[in-house]
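Bumping with the actual sequence this time:
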Amino acid sequence: MTSTNPAGVLPVAGRAPARRGLQSHGRATPWLFLAPYLLIFGGFVALPVVLGLWMSLYRWDYTLPRKPFVGLENYTDLLDPGSTTFGPFWQAMQATGVFMALSVPLLLVVPLLVAMLMNGRFPGRNFFRAVYFAPYVLGVAVVAVLWRYLLDTNIGLVNYYLEVLGLPGDTAWLTSTIPAWTSLVGVTVWWTLGLNAVIYLAALQDIPADLYESARMDGANAWQQFWAVTLPGLRPVLMFVMINTIIASANMFGQSFLMTQGGPGRETRTAIYLIAEEGLRNFQMGSAAAMSYVLTVALVLLSVIVFWLFRERKEKES
């Protein structure tokens, strides 16, 4: 007895290879979507990292035809007090540390306060959210040049309004050490707090309202609710914001270059400022690359410490 095909359709030869072709094409599809990113990542991240490490092993002056191999000399010079790069580099690292110590806490706390304020329900809250975020869309050149004129000792509006209020109006905001640091940190906080505030705001809206209701039923006041509900709910986001802010502050260059020109003296010349000057103005790309890798190692260590601190707190609480 022979079996019949109800549909009256005979099997088509060669269908299995076609199915295999579709399956292989399906496996290639994710790579096709990833290809633009991989090309950009490889060309602008991976390749420069390898090339920079290679250049740091040479006395790389791109204005000269010969570039002798020096091994780790560019790195050892950064640790040798008798070398010409030791003093400027560690002074620049100190300036970077000062800026980070002043700006990172403010960029963690102030945006959180703004986000908590913007998380409330009041008329026009979307307008105020946009106002706080608006400076972040400006480029560093626009921000730095704008504030350079506002903070000018003679024609700046800041000193003018200080005089109107009866306060000293002759502060040298960009040419004295303490006012210069105050200006750089204040401008940076004004410029970038909007991004951190938006990240905090998204995290605050993700915390269940039931937790606050339970805390209020247990008699917790506003501070206790913040400490027991808000802060634990923000822990992963807080770690993300902290690491990003540390890296961004360590890479501060445009504000110092355009507002204070690294002055007074070399007080506000950060590590990135010195690296750019060493490589692009002095043509010493080998030592500049070595400086950048030392800075990278320092940032990696700081990031590891931040991860460890947050992990330690979580383990203790659990």
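The tokens above came from a reply further down the thread. The two ends are 71 Å apart (CA to CA).
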